[in-house]
């Protein structure tokens, strides 16, 4: 079946294609409007009585929501904190995950089995279930009300899942490749850096994007560990903004747009890697 | 020719914009085993896929058992196909795999199972009915795929290189079984292969395909003795037929036919005689010994290569000077520009 | 970390194809590479899980040291009406929303896995909500669902009079009526099944194409193909995803309940276990009690895992490789 990855189009398929396209259009019609409304809502003039009829384009279009969100909510400061956390945590997380994934792929099978099993167990534990004990531990270490607890999950590769993904990717590389590296007496670290990592670049790209989105959106951790307004990250600042005046939706929607844009940007950059038709594994 | 089982009438097919079949005309008689032979990428699989309706035609008609099926979907054409990769359903047992086609056509469960068992017995895999494809060897999978094709009584069987994944011994065995099966069932079969031996052994008739065009259709004997083009002549036979310009360094012995100016002569390696003492002088470049036979690679004066096949015991030494003799009766003549056969 | 001791004593080249580096230097390096992750795994997940176990049997308010409480917390939980509501809400949510989410993702994956006009855009669109930060997404729905001026009810009221829909019914009171609020939380969660969708998309694309062509030759129709081929071939992935989603559902109700409905409308219509744990621990500072509730949550997870495991096992018997 070499080289055959176009959709089959035997004759009666044409009608089916039409239906599929209609379905696709329907999906777009359902999933996109909420986000369009987010933008349109954020551009509404704050303080006006809500219009009785639905409006896709607000009248008048106003950026006052954004101005107020920025100075009322301290969103600038919060964005800086968020960026700081992301800049430290995302590379660290990807580094930890790829190192660990590589080590798992190369260590003796029994060691690997134990760690993989532990990772699977860890995956089964819902994050909310760890709130209380993690908090007790960080408090014991005197690290609450700092940004450290927000960066700490990077040690876990953000999610054990990502370590496992790296593990599978490295394991899928041909065994000959590792043998060749051993013959050349490359150390594991150099094998990882010079041979293995370049070969799984798409995985790295995808996981970096996911890690960024998760880190950037992290709401629960800051909610619990950070009380100092100066340390608020964007999601937390957004929440206090919404508490300030829950009826003034253009202001907090503007804040939501600001918080969403970087994550969406990264998503759009990354999505072609895992959504594209080329990713068809039947080559 | 008797009643037609499958007819391709000026069929063209394309992947996106690239045309891969060019107005192919092919008629398979009912009960005939036709082998489609050609090099990789010639469009052999495409011929089958068009016949099965998995690929649309861009021109021409497809007829099966007298019905025009060009616009019918695959399921209505009443064909069975054995895929190159077998396409067994990994989650179903052998029995369920074989019965699949019957069950989706609402054949009662018991009847379907009974016929599946019968089909499995025909191809000798009745002992595997409860296994899954993952637990079978390549040869066993092939039998199951075949049984799945046999369980219905389709108008045409389409077999896409069903033997290519097997080792040589198994391939030879299955080849014979396939032929015997065909004779027993009297079924219409189109069998695709790129293996010339398989084609010569198996076929009632062979269609040689090249770049999406039919070069020649004929019995194995016709293909071997009177190849219609230079391509067919060189594709069938190993080592390939020698080709030289007609007026060149080597002149066959005997009465020459009337030749146009631009002609090529061709002769098989086994037609070359190195013992006559006359003929064109040549130097032995290298020798390959394959058991009883030795292939002698020679260079004529003027630099043209020639291959001879001689008994191993009578092979010349490397570097020796020999004389290459051929007779006109063993020689094929082709038009130098079109590559078509001129004589005899 | 313990990695050194785990990898250390292993004999070099254990068996054919053993990927273990043959020399001690390599093994030491590999152990070091694994060490940070192991530290994280133990320090951030496994240890906290154990701490939960311990705290659940104490009274603890962060100020005084934990005091042994025996099974007090658990007996209190059993009698706590709020906890019972939260537990019911959580289970009901998982039972309703998880199948819906997986079915939706499956439907989308089957609809959009091919190259058809619009499919690429639709795939991206279906994933978009998953990329939006939870809190921003929650705030968006807080506004969308507002019974008075939210766009959803505005649309529902088009054509009606006096704040009624065109059919003369009152539009849903999303944030003030208990049933409507629960429905709203499920609705909100349906939009974020992106990850499940991506995995199913990949799984569907990985299915061998010739098998489908075979089915076409046998004239299997759409429903037959789905029931006899697609579904059984994807079942293992589906089971795993459902399990993952069931576990995640304990968590992803948190932000919507916290921001959109604030656990209400009264009495506690959308208080889920996650919210209950958060409020008990961090608003009422009853950490021991919260830990006990957490433990219940983990037991629930375990139950979900076991149930699914049995299902997968049963499936495995049909599908050995
Ligand atoms: N999906 C496709 N998209 C574009 N071109 C294709 C596709 N499938 C096949 N082709 C081209 O069509 C031509 C014929 O392909 P086909 O598969 O029929 O060859 P074949 O004779 O069966 O070869 P083989 O012996 O290698 O199986 C080839 O040139 C091939 O590159
Ligand atoms: Mg082929």
TrEMBL record, chain A:
Pfam families in alphabetical order: BPD_transp_1 (PF00528)
BP term (GO), one: transmembrane transport
ABC transmembrane type-1 domain ranges (all copies): 79-270
GO CC annotation terms, alphabetical: plasma membrane
Coiled-coil features, chain-numbered ranges: none
Primary location group: membrane
Ranges annotated as spanning the membrane: 21-43, 83-105, 112-135, 147-169, 207-227, 247-270
Domain of life: Bacteria
Membrane topology annotation: Multi-pass membrane protein
Subcellular location: Cell membrane
Keywords linked to the UniProt accession: Cell membrane, Membrane, Transmembrane, Transmembrane helix, Transport
Family per record: Belongs to the binding-protein-dependent transport system permease family.
Family annotation (PANTHER family): ABC TRANSPORTER PERMEASE PROTEIN MG189-RELATED, ABC TRANSPORTER PERMEASE PROTEIN MG189-RELATED-RELATED
Protein name in UniProt: Carbohydrate ABC transporter permease
Organism the protein comes from: Micromonospora carbonacea
Automatic annotation (TrEMBL), chain B:
Keywords of the record: ATP-binding, Nucleotide-binding, Transport
Residue span, ABC transporter domain: 6-236
Pfam families according to UniProt: ABC_tran, TOBE_2
One GO molecular-function entry: ATP hydrolysis activity
GO cellular component, one term: ATP-binding cassette (ABC) transporter complex, substrate-binding subunit-containing
UniProt superkingdom: Bacteria
Protein name per its UniProtKB record: ABC transporter ATP-binding protein
Organism classification: Bacteria, Bacillati, Actinomycetota, Actinomycetes, Micromonosporales
